[in-house]
């Protein structure tokens, strides 16, 4: 080190040598990039489907995206699909609401009462093990070929998913927290609204979101079995007449049902649970 030269000049670089900080992209550009990134696999699949139909596999089996789009336009332009949409929509809403309500009430009741849980949980588990699709003919005998049998089948499939998630959520509440709340003078109603329901809310919302596709399965299976109207009947008739474009058109409409319902459930979850950041861990589909 030469004499008279400050040590700071040797130990530290000057400010002109430092690299400028990397500027982050604006939030709107990031959201746009993420949106297109999500679309990329779907667009790639559609392009591969369009190319391979008629080349790698016969078009009579898989149709084409362009033919499906044209079939959808014809269905909505002619109004042919609207009665089926109305019937299936009613069955989905009624079956889902009844299943969620029954699952929340049943899961909360057995979750709060260990004695009742020990008595009834084996029966619930045994009934849960029965394939729900096998119940479709029985429901048709009981409720007829109308809307009742489809609503019953959808509500049964929704009930068990919601029930077990709510049951697990209520049982996961810390007993020390419950005892502390009781010591502070809370009654059962306050305990329900301020302890158990907030603790079980993420489990309830997860069960509701998991149940959406199952309600669609229940309704469509019921309409496949016996129905006078509905998307399930439309898909079944398209299949029996070798109309793959009609089959895929019905599937696209069902996919739209599930997507919209899942979007609304996600909005409801963010609204109800805005006070709590979800850790990403929770109950699973049983």
CATH superfamily: MetI-like
Number of discrete helical segments: 12
Distance between the termini: 72 Å
Our count of domains comes out at 1
Please tally the β strands and state the result: 0
CA-based shape: flat
Q: Examine the secondary-structure arrangement and name the CATH architecture.
A: Orthogonal Bundle
Class by helix and strand content?
mainly alpha
Mean pLDDT: 81
Rg, Cα atoms, Å: 28 Å
Which parts are unreliable, with pLDDT below 50 for 5 consecutive residues or more?
Answer: 278-286
Q: What name does the CATH topology carry?
A: MetI-like fold
Helix and strand sequence: HHHHHHHHHHHH
Describe this structure in words.
It is a single chain. Helix 10 (188-225) runs parallel beside helix 11. The longest helix has 38 residues, at 188-225. The model is unreliable at 278-286 (pLDDT under 50). This protein has helices at residues 7-11, 27-52, 59-62, 65-78, 82-112, 114-128, 136-143, 147-171, 175-183, 188-225, 231-240, 244-272. It is built from 12 helices and no strands. It has a single domain (64-272), classed as MetI-like (MetI-like fold), CATH 1.10.3720. The protein is an all-alpha fold and 286 residues long.
What secondary-structure arrangement, pairings included, does this model have?
Layout: H1 7-11, H2 27-52, H3 59-62, H4 65-78, H5 82-112, H6 114-128, H7 136-143, H8 147-171, H9 175-183, H10 188-225, H11 231-240, H12 244-272
Helix pairs in contact: 4-12, 5-6, 5-8, 5-10, 5-11, 7-8, 8-10, 10-11, 10-12, 11-12
